[in-house]
Amino acid sequence: MASPGSSGVSRRAALVGLAGGAMAGLLPLGAVAAPAPAVLSRPALMSPKALGAAMLAVTRAGARLVAVGERGTVLLSDDHGQQWRQAAVPVQVTLTCVAFADERHGWAAGHLGTILHSDDGGQTWRKQLDGIAAAASVAEAARASGDTAALADAQALVDEGPDKPFFDLSFIDAQRGFAAGAYGLLFATADGGRTWLPRSARPANPQGLHLYGLRATAGQLVVAGEQGLLMRSTDGGASFEALPSPYKGSFLGLLQTPGGHLIAHGLRGSVYRAGPDAARWERLESQTGATLGASAVLPNGGFVLVSQIGEVLIAPPDAAALRRLPVREAVPIAGAALAADGALVLASLRGMRRLASLPTE
Predict the structure, then answer these.
(1) Rounded Cα gap, residues 360 and 286, in angstroms
(2) Cα separation of 183 and 178, whole Å?
(3) At 68, phi and psi to the nearest 5?
(4) pLDDT value at position 145?
(5) Angle at Cα 165 formed by Cα 228 and Cα 11, nearest 5°?
(6) What does the alpha-carbon distance between residue 228 and residue 143 come to, in Å, rounded to a whole number?
(7) Cα dihedral 323→325→326→331 (10° resolution)
(8) Which residue, 3, 51, 173, 243, is the most exposed by fewest CB within 10 angstroms?
(9) Please, are residues 10 and 291 in contact by the beta-carbon 8 Å criterion?
(10) Using an 8 Å Cβ cutoff, are 241 and 182 in contact?
(11) Can you give the pLDDT at residue 360?
(12) Which candidate, 93, 98, 99, 107, places its Cα nearest to that of 192?
């Protein structure tokens, strides 16, 4: 499977760089998967050093904060990010994204096609999917479809082993959700992750570009990715249409405001906003040329973006430009979330950071 071209993005380089079952008969070539990497079955090491680990994403689970990062590290905070403790995790795989449907039910995903699930607010986790099972599922779907190109891609996925990471998760509720990642990798669940099934977006993403951000609602799924890719499904991921894109660089994140507006952000300070139907995108002035890889929604309908060089940018609802706040983190930032007390909590490559309450006007 040929690479669609590097985006040259340090955050995604960190996501990819941190870091069986036999499947004969699923495909005509009868390929057999390589043995499962040991990190898929080894629990994450419990250590005080985890508090300084490279952390790549953070989200809310009710009032609790849940952050994920390298080597299966999951950190929890019940005091708005002031203190953190490590959770038990069954893998040593780097986790790149985390999402909760409510205060108890959450998912984390990352390298080697791994998806984990928690039903107790992030305190404990179990594996629902890995790259070996994902490749088997893709192969089965390709064989059932009879599509020659799909069969070739599935064969490559089997041959290459479980090396494809997931980059983002989005859940409609505790049963329905999606996971997206490298080379167009896209999976969906309708039963809380007990089963994860592949979704093909080939007509909208024929090059198999990396998928970096997605947002799901009951009515649609919008996906953003490499080389300005934007696509939408209105049938639960059964089919996709490519959306006209205003940008040729890579989008690294996608968020949705309480009012339904979609915000895509990425390379060279690029920020674009669209209405709920994602049909027309307008550029917002970001006041920076740095890559924007971390974002969080504000209660008033605005949002905040954090650049890889630590700039914090805030946008009130319907603003045409972002405003740079007089704060700056000295370490690379990969993820952001708003704590229940209004503080901005950041996942950095040197542990977690907390900024005081943000202005919302």
Answers:
(1) 17
(2) 16
(3) -130, 155
(4) 86
(5) 60
(6) 31
(7) -120
(8) 3
(9) yes
(10) no
(11) 56
(12) 107
Average per-residue pLDDT for the chain: 89
Given pLDDT bands bounded at 50, 70 and 90, which one contains residue 16? very low
- pLDDT of 139-189, one tens digit each? 998 888 888 888 888 888 888 888 899 999 999 999 999 999 999 999 999
Confirm if 91 and 72 have CB atoms less than 8 A apart.
Answer: yes
Indicate whether 35 pLDDT > 60.
Answer: yes
Q: Does an H or E element contain 324, and which?
A: strand 323-328
State how far the alpha carbon of 247 is from the alpha carbons of 99, 183, 271, in Å.
Answer: 27, 19, 10
| Phi/psi of residue 229, nearest 5 degrees | -65, 130
The per-residue pLDDT for 160 is: 85
pLDDT at site 83: 98
Please state at what angle helix 131-145 crosses helix 148-160, rounded to 10 degrees: 160
* Contacts (Cβ under 8 Å, ≥6 apart) of 329: 306, 310, 312, 346, 348, 353, 355
Q: For strand 343-348 and strand 351-357, is the pairing parallel, antiparallel, or unpaired? A: antiparallel
Residue 231 belongs to what H/E stretch?
Answer: strand 230-233
Residue with token string 């997206």:
180
Q: What is the mean pLDDT of residues 225-252?
A: 96
CA–CA separation, 131 and 142 (whole Å): 16
Burial (0-12, 13-18, 19+ Cβ within 10 Å), 200: buried
Identity at 47, one-letter amino acid code? S
- Specify whether the CB–CB gap between 279 and 265 falls below 8 A: no
| Secondary structure (3-state) at 296 | strand
Cβ count near 47 (within 10 Å): 12
Contacts of 216 (CB under 8 A, 6+ apart): 170, 171, 172, 176, 177, 178, 222
Pure H helices in 190-242: none
| Residue carrying the six token digits 């959700």 | 177
